[in-house]
Amino acid sequence: MQVLVRDNNIEQALKVLKKRMQREGIFREMKQRKAYEKPSERRVREAAEAVRRTRKAARKKAQREGLIAAPKRTLKPRTGAGAAPSPR
């Protein structure tokens, strides 16, 4: 995995690296490898993950087809340089 550092902005590069590692599941894998996991526990965990993935895929498919309502999105207030000034 490679992250480019632009304008010596190491904080931004670290933020990008952490986000990529999170997306790849590296942190989850490191946490699992901290301690030994019995083969029986591993099978149970992997089966539960498979069920979770299957249910999530079915839920998304039902939402796309309009069978169930999609969750309501909440708008986050914008902050920073692009935000509109607050009325006072």
Automatic annotation (TrEMBL):
Ranges annotated as biased composition (Basic residues): 53-62
Classification via Pfam families: Ribosomal_S21
Stretch list, region Disordered: 53-88
Entry-linked InterPro entries: Ribosomal_bS21, Ribosomal_bS21_sf
Keywords: Ribonucleoprotein, Ribosomal protein
GO cellular component annotations of the record: ribosome
Family assignment from sequence similarity: Belongs to the bacterial ribosomal protein bS21 family.
Name of this protein: Small ribosomal subunit protein bS21
Species per Swiss-Prot/TrEMBL record: Xanthobacter oligotrophicus
Gene, per the UniProt record: rpsU
